[in-house]
Write a structure and sequence with these properties.
Oligomer: heterodimer
Distance between the termini of chain B: 29 Å
Helix content of chain A: over 70%
Shape of chain A: flat
CATH topology of the largest domain in chain B: MetI-like fold
Structural class of chain B: mainly alpha
Distance between the termini of chain A: 47 Å
CATH class of the largest domain in chain B: Mainly Alpha
CATH topology of the largest domain in chain A: MetI-like fold
Number of strands of chain B: 0
CATH architecture of the largest domain in chain A: Orthogonal Bundle
Number of domains of chain A: 2
Structural class of chain A: mainly alpha
Largest sheet of chain B: none
CATH architecture of the largest domain in chain B: Orthogonal Bundle
Radius of gyration of chain A: 27 Å
Order of helices and strands of chain B: HHHHHHHHHHHHH
Helix content of chain B: over 70%
CATH superfamily of the largest domain in chain A: MetI-like
Number of domains of chain B: 2
Largest interface: A-B, 104 and 98 residues
């Protein structure tokens, strides 16, 4: 009994000493944790709106439950499937066009002996990353509209002008191209960093053994950065149902709605513009759930391949 | 590493150097073009003579853009907003990252996990909108600052930077009687200033370029950022051009001038901060 009391007192003392030494660390955390609860976790409770018939005057908690009716409505609505299809289509195009090109550029840039050209390319290709999608959309219109620079050149050469911004299939390429333009510099730097970290003596050994440059790139360089490539690829696959808002919203226009209306813009237009909060929340929730499942599966695959996962 | 002076090596180097110079130049054409239009005369634009260099150089478009009160106001307001939001972002990030970088902090792991979860579980814009509304922040400048006050991703990067500091430095500070706040301000922060600069710039670029939250939360035009005002210009011209309606070509160069003005803060700081950004990306890349 006595022993236990002593132990308790000692423990109490330890706690007091611990708090005396560390209370300032906890004090620093107070504001971030309050922020975390009020602005990150509280909205998560708000997803119950997806299961309710939301009425703005009754608020989130007073509105009546309607079960899965909003989801049923979404799954039977053509607009929803179109938005999902467009989201997948635009993301898959990004994957096919935007993913391999920076790898290709990085590998050959890395083979150059001139540091100046490497710096020059890297610096300028990274610049579009700092442009907002509002600016890019303005630039795209100036270049590609019927009276824009590119069509001026095409017409001067004696061809018909091309409806870059009003034909849905051509517009998709415009979307992918400007995505590449905006993000290539960033990916280029990531891959160049991975290439810098590789062991150059392996390439030298292959050279002495008589390997050609292409053989060295294919058998020595690429295997050394393949782990980076795999992780980035799987992560991008994991994000196939997620799409940013700014890019499709700004690049699209009323004439290509059939290709540019994606989940994020659809949720915005039915939720905030038309005021159907419950229905929009249900679609947002669907996207989050599918997204989390995809990311977790992607992470599982990365770990199975023996790489360090992202979670 | 290759045969230093062989003929094929020389050809290879020349070919690929040229290739990269051309690619880079082509990538710069959209930016050069918009700058060229903004400085060109109305007649040259109408005649389709402007390629990537200004024709009939004049600054009329800029004078007109600056005479439009709404654009100038939005510009000044956006600059202030960018600095204010970035300062708050950095303070929040450091306040969270410093304690969580201590491995033996009881409860630290749980809080860290709670931050990481928010990176993947996103409730969607409607619940976030209702939340902002419940705090009566709709149509106030705080709606553009508070909801994004702290990015879990940046916080983790900051946390890793703090962990990279030698423990012996902390021990010495403690023996000398430094409090945690004092240690943070006088010892830790000076050691990680490149990281603070990098994250500050990430936050600043995000705030300057962001349009989504302005669209969701702001109704009155006095709180419109420069991107939002620019969006209205861009959209008005876009639809009329595509539908083949007559467009006012003077508006074309004013629009170009507005685009250039909106890019200006980024173009001006870019040469100086490019190195920091590169460093930041590499740190992000190492992790995942």
């Amino acid at each position: 009994m006595d022993k236990r009391r002593k132990a308790e007192i000692r423990k109490g003392k330890k706690v007091r000493i611990y708090l005396k030494n560390n209370w300032q660390l906890y004090a620093m955390l107070v504001i971030p944790v309050i922020y975390l609860i009020l602005f990150k976790y509280k909205p998560m409770l708000g997803v119950v709106v997806a299961f309710k018939k939301f009425n703005i005057y009754q608020g989130i908690w007073e509105s009546p439950w309607i079960g899965l009716a909003n989801f049923k409505e979404a799954f039977s609505s053509k607009d929803f499937w179109d938005a999902l299809k467009n989201t997948l289509m635009l993301n898959i195009g990004d994957l096919i066009i935007g993913f391999p090109i920076p790898i290709f550029l990085a590998i050959f840039l890395n083979e150059l002996r001139s540091n100046k050209i490497r710096k020059f390319t890297q610096t300028l290709l990274y610049l579009p990353n700092f442009m907002s999608w509002v600016i890019i959309s303005g630039i795209a219109t100036q270049l590609l509209s019927r009276s824009g620079l590119v069509n001026n050149i095409i017409v001067t050469l004696g061809f018909e002008s091309v409806p870059f911004l009003s034909n849905t299939s051509i517009w998709r390429f415009v979307y992918w191209f400007f995505g590449l333009w905006q993000s290539a510099g960033y990916s280029l730097i990531v891959y160049l960093a991975a290439l810098m970290a590789t062991d150059s003596s392996l390439g030298e050994a292959a050279y002495i053994d008589g390997a050609t440059r292409l053989q060295r790139i294919w058998y020595v360089t690429i295997p050394q950065i393949s782990s980076t490539i795999t992780v980035l690829l799987i992560m991008q696959v994991g994000r196939l149902v997620s799409i940013s808002f700014d890019r499709p919203y700004m690049m699209g226009n009323t004439l290509v709605r059939g290709a540019s209306n994606v989940i994020s813009t659809y949720v915005y237009s039915i939720g905030l513009s038309s005021g159907r909060f419950d229905f929009a929340t249900a679609i947002g929730l669907f996207q989050t759930i599918v997204g989390v499942v995809l990311v977790l599966s992607a992470n599982g695959i990365i770990k199975k391949l023996g790489q360090e996962g992202i979670i | 590493m290759s045969a230093v002076n062989s003929r094929s090596e020389k050809i290879f180097q020349i070919f690929w150097s040229t290739f990269f110079i051309v690619i880079t130049f082509v990538a710069m054409v959209p930016i050069l073009r918009v700058i060229a239009v903004s400085f060109s005369s109305k007649d040259a634009i109408t005649a389709g003579k402007v390629m990537i260099f200004p024709k009939g150089f004049n600054t009329e478009a800029y004078r007109k853009a600056f005479r439009s009160g709404s654009f100038v106001n939005a510009f000044g307001y956006s600059i202030l907003l960018m600095f204010g939001a970035t300062a708050i972002n950095l303070i929040m990030t450091i306040l969270a990252a410093y304690p969580l970088s201590k491995k033996n902090l009881i409860g630290g792991n749980i809080i860290m996990t709670l931050f990481v979860i928010t990176m993947y579980l996103n409730p969607g814009i409607i619940p976030e909108y209702l939340n902002v509304k419940s705090f009566k922040l709709i149509d106030t400048v705080w709606a553009l600052i508070i909801p994004g006050a702290l990015s879990a991703y940046n916080m983790i990067i900051m946390c890793n930077a703090f962990r990279g500091i030698d423990q012996a430095i902390y021990d010495a500070a403690r023996i000398d009687g430094c409090s945690e706040f004092r240690t943070l301000i006088s010892i830790t922060l000076p050691l990680v200033y490149p990281m603070i600069a990098t994250l500050g710039l990430f936050y600043a670029v995000g705030r300057w370029n962001g349009i989504g939250d302005v669209l969701y939360y702001i109704n009155s035009s006095k709180y419109f950022t420069v991107q939002m005002v620019l969006k209205q210009y861009v959209e008005a011209v876009k639809v009329s051009v595509e539908e083949g309606l007559m467009t006012n070509l003077l508006a074309e160069n004013i629009k170009a001038a507005s685009i250039v003005i909106s890019m200006l803060p980024m173009l001006l700081v870019y040469p100086f901060v490019q190195k920091f950004f590169t460093k930041g990306i590499m740190i992000g890349a190492v992790k995942g």
